[in-house]
Write a structure and sequence with these properties.
By secondary structure, this protein is mostly beta strands. The chain has helices spanning 2-14, 97-110, 125-128; strands at 23-29, 40-41, 46-49, 54-59, 64-69, 72-75, 82-84, 87-92, 133-137, 141-143, 151-158, 166-171, 174-176, 189-194, 197-208, 217-219. A five-stranded antiparallel sheet has the order 2-1-4-5-8, with no helix packed on it. Strand 4 (54-59) and strand 5 (64-69) form a beta hairpin.
Length: 220
């Protein structure tokens, strides 16, 4: 029995932890090699920028936003990049930080993220429904996890007050809903649903149109 217990423990220790991507590519123009807008990138990856290339990265844990102009190389870190031969401008933007990165790892790579079911709209619902995620723009960027269908319907239902749901059909793994005209209410609390997956999303009271992807990202 002791041998079996030790073997089981060793197996658990040997099981790799679920890795989360470090950053998302917000834009890639000119001579950026191997990535495009809305790609996730892992720590340790090296990206080449040719002369004239522009790479914009949003870090999911640190909320650091980088604009890098080449040529040179960019090595992705855990919280910011190591840039050789290029120029980098950094600032920190509002985003849900480590929670955003954890959600991305669980949903995007395992395809098995399960969220709480939010209450339907009723008096006091906003007080009883803690948000799974806060976003800082009124037009979300949605990323669908593993196993998503080719075409998906994304629905936003206001749960802190009554109102007609907002629904939009999307194709592809990641979609910026600003292009579909989706505008959520600053300060509003929504149940965001895609297929059988849903989560409660708080829109920051100061949210406006546009803004970095990391501040608007919802990962199903």
């Amino acid at each position: 029995m002791r041998i079996l217990t030790l073997a089981s423990a060793a197996l658990l220790l040997a099981t790799p932890a679920l890795a989360a991507p470090a950053a998302i590519v917000e834009d890639a123009e000119g001579g950026v090699v191997g990535v495009e807008a809305l790609d996730y990138v892992d720590a340790g990856r090296v990206i080449e920028l040719k002369p004239g290339g522009v790479l914009v990265l949003g870090y999911l844990k640190s909320c650091v936003h980088e604009t890098i102009r080449g040529g040179g190389t960019v090595k992705i870190g855990a919280e910011q990049s190591e840039v050789t031969g290029g120029r980098v401008e950094r600032k920190t933007n509002p985003c849900d930080g480590g929670k955003l990165q954890l959600t991305t790892a669980q949903a995007g790579k395992s395809g098995a993220m399960v969220f709480r079911k939010a209450p339907t709209a009723q008096a006091g619902a906003a007080k009883s429904a803690a948000a799974d995620l806060t976003i800082y723009g009124i037009s979300p960027v949605v990323a669908l996890g593993a196993g998503a269908a080719a075409k998906n319907r994304i629905t936003f239902e206001r749960i802190d007050q009554s109102g007609a749901p907002i629904a939009v059909d999307v194709t592809g793994a990641k979609t910026d809903l600003a292009k579909s005209g989706v505008r959520l209410a600053p300060g509003g609390l929504y149940r965001a649903s895609a297929g059988e997956r849903s989560l409660v999303v708080q829109i920051d009271a100061a949210a406006a149109s546009g803004g970095p992807v990391t501040g608007r990202l919802i990962q199903f």
